[in-house]
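[[Per-residue structure]]
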Amino acid sequence: MKLDFQKDGYLFLTDDTSKLDTDTIFLKTAQNSHYYEQLEPKPETLTVDELISFWGLDKMKVVGVTGTNGKTTVTAAIYSFLLDLNEKPALQGTRGLFAQEKRIEEKSMTTPSILETLYNMKQTMDMGCNYFIMEVSSHAIDQNRIEGLTFALKVHTNVTSDHLDYHGTVEEYRRVKSLFFADESPKLLNKDDIKNITYNPIGAQSYGVDEPATFKVQAFSLLNGITAGIKHLQAEATFHSPMVGLFNLFNLMAAIGSVQMLTGRSIEEICEVVEYFAGVSGRMEVVSRDPLVIVDFAHTDDGMYQVLDSMKDRDISVVFGAGGNRDKEKRPRMGAVAGRYANKIYVTSDNPRDEVPEMILEDILLGLHGKDHVTATPDRRLAIKMALDALEENEVLLILGKGDEDYQEIKGVKYPFDDREVVRELLKERA
């Protein structure tokens, strides 16, 4: 990445050694410092702290959200609530960069390089934003892609099991996540999941549904959306949301608590704007209400557990698969989770990538051995059609794994495919 940078004349700034020339300043980071040592002659350098100071980025309140699930929804909810409360937030994450209710950049990594993050902060600060809400992945924590950032708030959604192809073990994954909460920064922790991390108690507050917490759910209903009564210290309030599912109650609580800690506003005032946030595209997205069809990004056994458990008050039909060239150990576990909750199960392709789709299906089916009402086909459109055709009045159809992806990756080629559009087309044909 190479950016315009004004310092004693017109120069460029980059963190990529391959883009260096005599008019370039090299941003020396934790990720690239060993490359710098190999350079001859040595170019002019800048540290992350110097760039933050030069651009005045320490004026922005940075909020980092990490967890196995919920990062995208929680960051989007914080952004939405702050906007509706007439604050000026920016949002960076898997869906892109947003400011002033507009998308500035398209989809990217969950947490990009520190130079890209700082540039995004600079862009949005110049647009008048004073909050920078960002998703923080375990890879970014481990690779120190967040070096130099001072967080006004760090948020924990949940930590279970993911990215074991990178981290190796669940214990190492949890250790890396816990590093994010080791300092004395203000932090908001999920009390119902707190056993899965270690953290510095200084500056820590919590939210919870079952466990006692700073921000506590007192009662809730999941009929026709989410309605909940909550308590913060001595204050009580009620909110309603069009979103569905128990885990979205946790996500909303994380966002409500975050906004209160950031702004000092009352929970009554914050709860008034909750209903205007309808959720994130592809995350528990209601594609049809009659019949009830929901599309979600859940692509791990824990993600599936969160989604299916949150809908357990209904009869469930589920369509799902598993990505190729990824953690194979989770596949039978995903099958087992589906077998635990769903009455009808359709195992199909996700993004098979370079693997043989039928082999991926076989791995999943190991976790469904002996289960009834299981159908397997590598044709995802056919699986969705069969599930819709067999859907009964009291059932919900959950289509998991791809969320708002609009392609299916097979042998290096991305073919157009959007679960939501397929559902709409099939329902239109049937009508």
Q: What stands out?
A: The mean pLDDT is 92. The first helix runs from residue 33 to 36.
